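In this notation, each integer encodes one residue's backbone shape. One such record reads:

___
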Amino acid sequence: MSGRPPRLPQPRRRLPAPRQAAAPRTVFRLTGSGRRAVRLSRRAVGLRGRLGGLARALGLKANPGRQPRLRAKPGRKNSPRPKPQLKRKLGLKDEPALSPGPEANPGPKPRLRAKLSGALGLSGTARGAWLRKVTGRAGKLPTAEPSTTEPSTAGLPPTERPVPGLLPSWLPIPKHRPSGLPTRKLRPSVPPTPKLRPPRLPVPKLPPRLPTGRLRKLRTRTRTRTRTRTRTRMVFALATLLALVCALLLDGYLDAEIGNDARVHRSHASRTVPDRLRKGGPVITFDRSGKATEHAIPSRTIALTFDDGPDPRWTPKILDVLRRHKVRGTFFVLGQMVVRHPELVRRMRAAGHEVGVHTFSHVDLSYQGTGRMDRELAQSQLALAGAAGITSSLFRAPYASKVRALDDRTWPVQQHIGAKGYISAFVDADSEDWQRPPVKEIVHNATPRGTKGASVLFHDAGGNRSRTVKALGQYIERMRKKGYSFTTVTGALGARSANHPARTVRIWEGRVLIWAAAFTHSVLPVLMGLLGLVGLSVLGRLLLMVVLAWWHRRSRERRRWRWVQEVNDPVSVIVPAYNEKECIANTLGSLAASTHPIEILVVDDGSTDGTADIAEALGLPNVRVLRQANAGKPAALNRGIAHARHELIVMMDGDTVFEPTTIRELVRPFADSRVGAVAGNAKVGNRNRLIGAWQHIEYVMGFNLDRRMYDLLRCMPTIPGAIGAFRRRALLDAGGMSADTLAEDTDITIALHRAGWRVVYQEHARAWTEAPGSLGQLWKQRYRWSYGTMQALWKHRRSLIDRGPSGRFGRVGMPLVVLFQILTPLCAPLIDLFTLYGVIFLDPVRSLLAWGALLLVQLLGAAYAFRLDRESCRALAALPLQQIAYRQLMYLVLLHSCVTAATGALLPWQKLKRTGEVEAPRAPEAVR
């Protein structure tokens, strides 16, 4: 320890020493090793070493009259006072000094030697006598070449490095003061022995002298902000679910799945229809008094009309044919098609074509009431306003053909439509292209007799219209050869266009409708894909868990001979408790009945309900109660680890009870020296109510079956806080319990995997815990679990690219946790949502059969899990309702957690209300 530090290369730049008026002729220059020590010290202390001089590097105060007192850091012991050579310790050597003169360069650091002298309280003469005494040399020390490199203690032994703010213990105190300075008595150089104190946790301090009223207002304001943020996240989660439902409803309505009425009326009597209308032209108008007037198309004039569009495949081709022949037509569009393809409507208007209304969803209006008729018309007009900024007064009813087909069922519809100012358009010639006849037949059907004018019907949507496209070009050429002209419906009557500019408000309302439809149209395929992935994930996870659990059971039976050896080492049981007065007596009573030698440490984390007093009043043997200020569960566990006397440590919650054989079974896997931690089998003790039964199913089917799978894959993500055993060495390797996340159990488990320790599952070590008894308490618990799991995964994200055991967990365990515990629950409500959608709007029988098949598979998996845990299957009667309710609850919880994580908000520890209804089992079963 007393040898010289290794020689290092010289610094690149050497600056001359500064000039001082009263500077002594004896100066010091650091050797090469000293200069390297300075650089190492600067790197260690950062800016302090770069900006400070010798006083800052050594932690000395430039006060010549007093020596600072010793303030030892916690956990630091006083080192003995060795007597090494001073100059060798500091890396000093003697060289001839330069005589300062008026021509000397003052240098860039004129206060360096003043700092050195002031820090030691010495002048040049006093320093010489002092160094002669230390080094044992006679005579004057030779002067040295000026140097600006500052001495450092980076090369000193650790026990001889000075504490910041202290004089090194191996430096003797000079007996006399330099001349010119006030004479003051120095204190003894031997500092008092420091008292070691445990480190104190930082406690936030309020502003001094804060009035009581202001303090109350501050607390009230903080609580209000917390509640407001929580409510905001809740509203966001519910709004997301509501938006999803609305998107499904809108897409179903646009696809004619919602409110679709496929009924088509047959011919009826026409007693109420005027004969002149049935024998007149294809256009009917109504005046204000309700009187109907028929209008005919002039001779040698054809009004081309197209129904059921626009279609993204066939409408553009028809528009291209009309453009090549320079013909304008009239398109009777469906509102739901306009919303999906508004660009085609704009193209129609740009080409000069006329647009009419063909209802919104192509429903037979003769079976609908006036309210449904009005909605169909209003929504169609809204779609036209958003797509092209127009409205239309031209209307054609679905399934309407020639005017002579009017009967007593369709005539009231025409009267209601006419009263609203619409022009009803019928046809004279129907090409019947919807039946897909040959091209020649389509042309023949569309040709009027003689030289009569006609309103001709084609279709640009509703199926394969390739023959319509071919027939349309031939029809136009043929009719032109006969001297026919082509125009729109209103153009043929010599009237103004039926398309009018829409109001600004209606335009923006229509655009919102179109944007919403576009959003749902793009999102729904994603949702359908997610639904498929969720279904495969649920089935795959269940199948994987069942197969691996069976394999785990067989492999455990084969290797059980390894664990037959009893582990009789004593165990330290740590029970962190915060306001657990209802449960602490049952917890300690169950531990006192253990068949394994244990010591019990109850760490009271600042309870205000007398939990520690109850624990002490029980008077149980081997029970120690440690009290501390409220610092959180990780701090309480670390306090217990520090005071534990044994190598094996068991951690449990204050609301959990053990069976007498639980600890003996829990520590049995430690017969394998590679095992660093063991996860026990946590069970719900208060399962009599519905919520408790739901959690009982979840614990058996979800948690314990999962742990068998993860144990076989050697990537268990969580040791339950209710029951877990650890080696002390493993905990130290992992850094102890961390307060970085809210899920300290997941955090320490992942840290143990990354440290190279094995984590196994012991299903025979059972613990009975008190589960939340209300939905509010359950929400708080699962919210903390999910958010803490996200924090732990983010904290250990580097394991994805690590090698060895850390990389194994990162590439095997972490994807499984993300897939099965975050993504699948987050998307699981799609199963119920699409099932409900199918029951209401699609085929209810097929939808219910699919949902029932999925439930049956889950029921079979749950039954196998219950058999492995030797539980009664009567609780599975609540499985259907549990699946439905839990899917929605976990969706909201996970969405809430994702929003909290995205906003970077801090989530406080949420204490659950306990009842103490879980007691120690009366007749525990020793499972061997």
In short: The two ends are 57 Å apart (CA to CA). The longest strand covers residues 758-769. The mean pLDDT is 75.
